[in-house]
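Data availability excerpt. The first of two example chains:
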Amino acid sequence: MAQRKFSDLTVAAQINKSDVFALEQVDGTKQALFEKICAAILTPEIVEQTEEFPTISPDDTIPVIAGKINKWQQDALKKIEESKQSNMIQEFPTEEFDPENPEDETTKQLHDEIISALLAYTMNEKILKVVSDHGVLAADYAIQKREQMASYGYFGVEWNIDDLMTLVKAGSWDKFAIGDYFIETNTTGEKILFEVTGKNSYLHCGDTELNKPHIVVSPRDCLQTYYKYNSSNTNAGGYAASLMPANLETEAKKFTTKLQGYMTTIRRLENNKGTWAWASRRIFLPGNPELVGFHGFADMWDGGAFNQLPLFVGGNAHLLKGAGFNKSKAARMWYWTADPSAAYTTYFCHFADSGASSYLYASADGGVAPLIVLS
């Protein structure tokens, strides 16, 4: 019989899945059903279509990590959307088949569909986890960004005080930022925006140790009511001997029961003009070192217990204050600190509306921006 060329063959009117084709392979010519050839060519494997999970390097910053994961997530979703629907199990076979026979055509087809569906399910679960992880990374990055920028301006977000304090009690310091705030409306109707000024700032301090997780908060602007240290223009006895502790307790008693419930009395080393002493306070004025990191014109009898609070480090946005909620009483207002003047017997120190650390007669009515500790 004469050898025939492919070009001499009659064109097939149609091709059936049971038709046999000749295949030239490296180990010799083989035959294969058309159905098997199509299955080998057209059945996509989702695992092969999806990009590998990105490699995270130790030097990668949080934005870089989030970017890599976001790109991988988009690629993976696109690949799965493009995957053939025929890759999934559409219906269970109705004809009889032998599931124990690996050569049974129905068994092989069902096996391929199950594997493909399992791959799709696994990939979707992986993507859902990555989407969740990416959301956590993005949220953590936003919190860290707020904290880094806190002293430069008003970048904090508002919290419900109960939600905030749940994080504080759990020691979840990375879930909220310095500069975040809550708004207190006291029993007289005055609104006060309290900002997170420090985290665990007095931990282990005191002649009686403070060992509870806590935050220090302060009003963004001075309280509505102004106060004097005394009417006699003296700083003898310093902070403890003045009217200021009682003045601030008057303000504390106006706070809501909820806020007062979170307030913590701490042992505080106070500057009492030429000496110092421990005192129990639940509300108090900041000392110069807590505001600006140095004593300025203050008598230096604070015992070294003070440290500059994080909200005030690196910028003046929160050091310079107005008075009243949203500066409704004054756009700029000077306010008292906890320190008697070192050089004079009639002055206490204050923080000027110009940004200077200075001093003034004890009888002057000035702004107050007290600190409170919440735990």
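And the second chain:
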Amino acid sequence: MRPNNWLVNLLIAFVALFFLALILEIVFRLPQIVQKTGGNQPEFKKWQDYVSSHEFNSLGFRDREHSLDKPKGTYRILVLGDSIVYGQMVDYDKIFSVVLEQRLSQLGRLPVEVISMGHMGWNTAEQLQAFAEKGVKFDPDLVIVGFVLNDPQIKDNPVGDELQDPERPILPFLTVDKWLNQKSKLYSFVRFRYNRFLEKAGRKGDYTVWQRNLYQPDARNFKAFTAALAQIKELAMKQGSPVLLVSLNFYPN
């Protein structure tokens, strides 16, 4: 009878834990709680973005429509980048590309048109793909690559230090961990707090350490990053367009 009692007690414990987790999951899905925790992205709760669909053009970028034919006498600039160029948490009239066009136009030397191809989360390889497939068709006079420090991250089959997510999983199975992190708001919150605890305990480097590891000269991700930059330059130069790499990194005191 004892083995049976042990199994029954174990089953009761699992059922109790399941219902406790279910109740907590429901609580963590309440709008008031999501607002405080950040939902499935607690690390980005301060960066939540609410953009109206009318701010996007037919290419899917947060910009107005631009004709492929360049207006006569117009100096055309194309900007590539990630969420900074996209303008996350920034009103449309304060986006980098919009302000740049306004400032240059105020000089009155010649008409200026700035085309934005910024997308949240893009690395340099994805910016290259967008430029090769769409950007070159606009025949820009100048190509600006908006650079931020996490641009060398690799997303195609990342391994080891190349992992896009510097957070450590709670579960040893990465696929399950990723799925739960996307679907369960409770799991995302616990995972986030678990990683902050590891950092405070000195058992894990923080985001800055992970970011620094992206710049190992022999690393696959860094080689892919420099190769993508070289290809952007090559494509632009074929059209007679110089490339300007602009650092958009900002660290307030």
